[in-house]
Design brief:
Blueprint (H helix, E strand, L loop, with lengths): L19 H4 L6 E8 L3 E6 L2 E6 L12 E5 L2 E5 L5 E5 L6 E6 L3 E7 L6 H14 L2 E7 L8 H10 L5 E3 L8 H7 L4 E5 L6 H9 L24 E4 L5 E4 L12 H6 L2 H8 L15 H7 L5 H21 L4 H19 L2
Parallel strand pairs: 8-9, 8-11, 9-10, 11-13
Antiparallel strand pairs: 1-2, 1-4, 2-3, 4-5, 6-7, 12-13
The chain binds guanosine-5'-triphosphate, magnesium ion and zinc ion.
Length: about 350
């Protein structure tokens, strides 16, 4: 039975015209969005309310944010996804879905600890790869003198970064961020203790997510949030809170990495040789951009690093391409070694 705990409209759950033709293909059933995934059951919201639906062994992998066609308490199908954010398990190489049908990936960093540019770049790549737009959210602005330095460090690394500095205690920047999220589904990712759940509460204007304290000294969080959950906020914004993760594995390919580094791709267009490795080749525009400061060394190195990781990921995903990938890897390593030389 559907419990009438909320009066959901499909629009408030993120429904839009784009889904209509997909739903129209089904003779019966109605649309419902997955709010939570408990392993053996999903919490699904339809216009009638929300209900827990047990998953059969044959049910395909469902992610929070998925749109389902449900008939009573049966899952008929999953509507084709507009985007899928997934992470790669660093130990097994398997990919795990984080959230489906997200428009924005909010990369949350607490200003009470050093901002990790590497982590931001990894999540940025994951977001583009998912088919979503990354935004960087610097929380706890109330705890620091100013946010400009951190913002500049991030922009130095990624000139196109969209950055929101906020405080969930003084509410500085919250209205601005809410404006950005109208009509969109935003998933919050980042380290434990970064302030994701507190931010959810600040954006919602009520207590939806549990928040926990951080340890004195190293500011590490306590993994307060244990499950991903989608919340419907005002402005038809849907927000998915996630448990903190420390390491994110790259699950993407070289072309996607490059699409997040359009400036480097532009420079590469100017290289004398089509297959320039951007090392010591004559007429390399990337190297000259490094020399005259149009491109920062940090950004170039993170691009090289992510490309190597993507090459590994491609290799794991397709052992048949071993030979080709090995040769490519060898070349990437040689390039990286060369680029490290002053
Ligand atoms: N001063 C201040 N403290 C904040 C702010 N945002 C979060 N905090 C505090 O930081 C601690 C961690 O916040 P949470 O929201 O629980 O962090 P989280 O990212 O959800 O952590 P996990 O659920 O473990 O992944 C809590 O003590 C919050 O009160 C902020 O803007 N300003
Ligand atoms: Mg939390
Ligand atoms: Zn070059």
């Amino acid at each position: 039975m559907f419990q009438e705990i909320h009066n959901f409209s499909l629009t408030s759950l993120g429904w839009s015209d784009r889904w209509e033709p997909h739903l129209a293909e089904y003779e019966f059933g109605e649309a419902g969005r997955v709010l939570r995934h408990d392993g053996t059951a999903v919490l699904v919201a339809t216009e009638k309310g929300s209900a827990h639906i047990a998953l059969a062994r044959s049910t395909p992998q469902i992610a929070v944010g998925d749109w389902l066609v449900v008939d009573g308490e049966a899952i008929v199908d999953i509507l084709p996804r507009a985007s899928l954010l997934q992470r790669r398990d660093p130990s097994t190489g398997d990919s795990q879905p984080i959230a489906a049908n997200v428009d924005l990936v909010g990369i949350v960093c607490g200003l009470d600890r050093p901002v990790s540019l590497g982590r931001i770049q990894r999540f940025t790549s994951l977001a583009w790869d998912a088919g979503a737009t990354p935004i960087v959210i610097l929380t706890k602005a109330d705890l620091v003198e100013g946010t400009v330095e951190s913002e500049e460090a991030i922009r130095h690394y990624d000139p196109a970064a969209e950055i929101f500095s906020v405080s969930s205690t003084t509410m500085v920047g919250i209205a601005n961020l809410l404006d950005r999220c109208v009509g969109q589904t935003l998933v919050l990712v980042g380290e434990s203790g970064a302030g994701k759940s507190r931010l959810l509460n600040a954006l919602a204007g009520r207590e939806l997510g549990d928040t926990g304290s951080v340890r004195q000294g190293d500011h590490k969080g306590r993994h307060t949030t244990t499950a991903r959950q989608l919340h419907s906020l005002t402005g038809n914004c849907c927000l998915i809170d996630t448990p903190g993760v420390r390491e994110v594995g790259i699950h993407t390919d070289i072309a996607t990495i490059d699409s997040g580094f359009a400036d480097i791709a532009d420079f590469a267009q100017g290289c004398r040789f089509n297959d320039c490795g951007h090392g010591s080749e004559p007429g390399c525009e990337v190297q000259s951009a490094l020399v005259d400061g149009r491109l920062s060394l940090e950004r170039f190195e993170s691009w090289s690093q992510l490309r190597r990781e993507a090459a590994w990921a491609e290799l794991r995903a397709d052992p048949a391409a071993n030979h080709r990938a090995n040769r490519q890897l060898g070349r990437l390593y040689r390039e990286a070694k060369r680029s490290k030389r002053p």
